[in-house]
TrEMBL record:
It holds the Pfam family KRAB. SMART domains: KRAB. InterPro entries: KRAB, KRAB_dom_sf, Krueppel_C2H2_ZnF. GO terms for biological process: regulation of DNA-templated transcription. It comes from Capra hircus. This is KRAB domain-containing protein.
Length: 62
């Protein structure tokens, strides 16, 4: 069974002091990874909304 995930489960948070120590490529990598995580979670969330509705409409068409 797959456990539920929230954004907080995959987010990497830096303190301001830690953030200042990162160079620009590290900051870009962090941003890119966070955007990918958000997109993946949004996709899973969207599919969870659409799937039950799709299943119901498929049943009524049979």
């Amino acid at each position: 069974m797959i456990d539920s995930l929230a954004f907080e489960d995959v987010a990497v948070n830096f303190t301001w002091e830690e953030w200042l120590l990162l160079d620009s490529s590290q900051k870009k990598l962090h941003r890119d990874m966070m955007l990918e995580s958000i997109r993946n979670l949004a996709s899973v969330w969207y599919k969870s909304l659409v799937s039950p509705q799709h299943m119901e409409s498929s049943k009524t068409q049979d």
